[in-house]
Amino acid sequence: MRGLWNHISPRFREKFSVAQRDEIFKAFYGLTITGEPLAGKSPIFTAAPALDRNSNLVVDGFYATAPWRVSFHLTFAMEGRAWKLVGINVSAKPPPAAAPPETGSVSDFQAADG
Hints:
Elements: H1 10-15, H2 18-24, H3 26-29, E1 44-45, E2 50-51, E3 57-63, E4 69-79, E5 82-93, E6 104-105, E7 109-110
Antiparallel strand pairs: 1-3, 2-3, 3-4, 4-5, 5-6, 5-7
């Protein structure tokens, strides 16, 4: 989670320590994933990026990966002259036809607006 540190909002950093983020994402650490599953892949957006009622940029989509489809819901806030991550929801699930050997899912993980 240390690699995510430079891309997240200071308010996100204040609310969730590296250790807390590691705990929340630990379901992914146990998955058997080899190589770099997102290398060379472009995200497929399920909706156009949009501003929510708090003027945050919301992006939804997935990566067409196998054996798991990696879906995401990301929320960014404008801080200074850059969009910084303030919320993340990611899931990795096998396709419906495959027997689920193991799955990982992360529930909403969002810094408080304010």
